[in-house]
Amino acid sequence: MNKNKSLTDGRKELGRKAEQAACDYLQAQGYTLLERNWSCRSGEIDLIAFCEDTIVIVEVRSRSRKAAAFGTPEESVTARKIKQVRDTAAVYLHLSGQSEANVRFDVIAVTYGAAGELDINHIEAAF
User: Fold this and answer.
1) Burial class of residue 61 (count of CB atoms within 10 Å of its CB; 0-12, 13-18, 19+)
2) How far, in Å, CA of 126 to CA of 86, rounded?
3) Is residue 5 pLDDT above 60, yes or no?
4) What residues contact 25, with CB distance under 8 A and at least 6 apart?
5) Which family does the similarity line name (predicted)?
6) How far is CA 116 from CA 46, 62, 122, in A?
């Protein structure tokens, strides 16, 4: 088996688990999940949720504790990624007829411990 394919598949699986953990976390906090992995030509939004009177656009990032030594999940959200998420959110809001809605951009950072435990850091209004 190709070692790089194995690494990529492992990262994708960890990413899926992180997104599920973020969904579960948000729902436990009273958010309503509207969309998951919504995409268009400009990019993809991991999660779109609703809380009180606000549409919350969520970027989910994950890392193992070991990999976090090279940068936390939060630190992996670059200016380029922020622009892509904002541009994609504008398309979503336009297509869903919600261009005038209150919108907030959050980051949920998931760090995996050695024993598989998860540490979730929810940063509201991250960008």
Assistant:
1) buried
2) 12
3) no
4) 108, 120, 122
5) Belongs to the UPF0102 family.
6) 22, 13, 19
Q: Are 117 and 68 in contact (CB under 8 A)?
A: no
In whole angstroms, give the CA distance from residue 19 to residue 121. 13
Report the distance separating Cα 118 and Cα 102, nearest Å.
30
**Could you identify the residue written with the tokens 């980051």?**
107
Q: Mind listing the domains of the chain with CATH numbers?
A: 3-123 (3.40.1350.10)
**pLDDT tens per residue across span 45-85:** 999 999 999 999 999 999 987 776 788 899 999 999 999 99
Q: pLDDT, tens digit, for every residue of 18-27?
A: 999 999 999 9
pLDDT of 3 over the 60 cut: no
In whole angstroms, what is the distance from residue 37 CA to residue 28 CA?
20
Rounded CA gap, 18 and 20, in Å? 5
